[in-house]
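To the wet lab folks,

You asked to see what we're planning to order before we commit. Fair enough. Below is the target structure as tokens, and below that is the sequence we designed to fit it. If anything looks off to you, flag it before the synthesis order goes out.
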């Protein structure tokens, strides 16, 4: 530890004003590096009586990836409150050890805390956490699935092409798993993620899922995700689009009509277009 770091570390002492102690933690987190003395000081600060300081320390131990803080972070998660979510986010950044601990903790915490853990895993940016987040998409709680999916979606723009492809392969494998079948809520989230990744392999999956017997919410999500893949549909795909467009449920009809709007009317498909006049709402 450098002399500068030692001086800043001394500002963590309880006899210092709270503002100074919080500022010291912030600076230590930004400086990077870690040693036994810093690890011990930050772990002790996680037990401090000041909530404001504890929140700052939670962020710092996550940024510095201090594994020794993991037991304290897990306790904060189990206790709930405003420190639970940042503690989960910090734990998820601690590599495979943190990921494994959060996976083991998830079934043991209150239902309201599970989405926060799922979101933290998906947003951690580590390989182990991402794999765990994809596995969370199989959860039977729609709130947990939605939390994981939302966080994964926020990561997509920053992913490299190779990373996008790898993530798409993990997601596509979920459809092929005959042991753990996806719930409707899980399918919807996975379809959104695949569409955002832009992998061409999702096209067949989307076209298949706009038709019965897939649940309505899955069909609607597939239609909304089709986008660029609906520019030149084949005869069977076009037939499926028209079937959705005349459906009595607006959630199917609306996205199907949006896709049809940009397609040319050809003489050989006029009969298909005329089926729109048989819709329950011709307008």
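Sequence we intend to order:
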């Amino acid at each position: 530890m450098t002399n500068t770091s030692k001086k800043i570390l001394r500002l963590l002492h309880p006899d210092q004003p709270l503002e100074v102690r919080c500022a010291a933690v912030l600076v230590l987190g930004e400086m990077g590096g870690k040693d036994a003395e810093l690890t011990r000081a930050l772990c002790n600060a996680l037990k401090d009586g000041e909530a404001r300081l504890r929140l700052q320390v939670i962020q710092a131990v996550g940024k510095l990836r201090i594994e020794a803080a993991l037991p304290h972070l897990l306790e904060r998660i189990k206790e709930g409150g405003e420190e639970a979510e940042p503690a989960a986010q910090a734990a998820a950044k601690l590599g495979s050890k943190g990921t494994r601990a959060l996976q083991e903790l998830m079934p043991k915490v209150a239902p309201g805390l599970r989405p926060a853990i799922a979101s933290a895993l998906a947003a951690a940016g580590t390989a182990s956490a991402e794999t765990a987040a994809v596995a969370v998409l199989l959860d039977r709680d729609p709130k947990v699935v939605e939390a994981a999916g939302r966080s994964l979606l926020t990561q997509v723009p920053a992913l490299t092409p190779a990373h996008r492809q790898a993530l798409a392969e993990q997601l596509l494998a979920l459809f092929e798993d005959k042991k753990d079948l996806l719930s409707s809520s899980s399918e919807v989230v996975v379809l959104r993620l695949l569409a955002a990744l832009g992998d061409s392999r999702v096209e067949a999956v989307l076209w298949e899922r706009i038709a019965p017997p897939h649940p309505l919410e899955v069909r609607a999500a597939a239609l909304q995700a089709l986008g660029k893949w609906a520019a030149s549909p084949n005869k069977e795909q076009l037939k499926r689009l028209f079937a959705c467009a005349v459906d009595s449920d607006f959630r199917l009809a609306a996205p199907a009509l949006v896709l049809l709007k940009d397609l040319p009317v050809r003489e050989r498909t006029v009969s298909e277009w005329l089926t729109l006049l048989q819709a329950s709402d011709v307008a």
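Structural context that might help your review: The chain has 17 helices and no strands. The two ends are 73 Å apart (CA to CA).

Thanks,
Computational group
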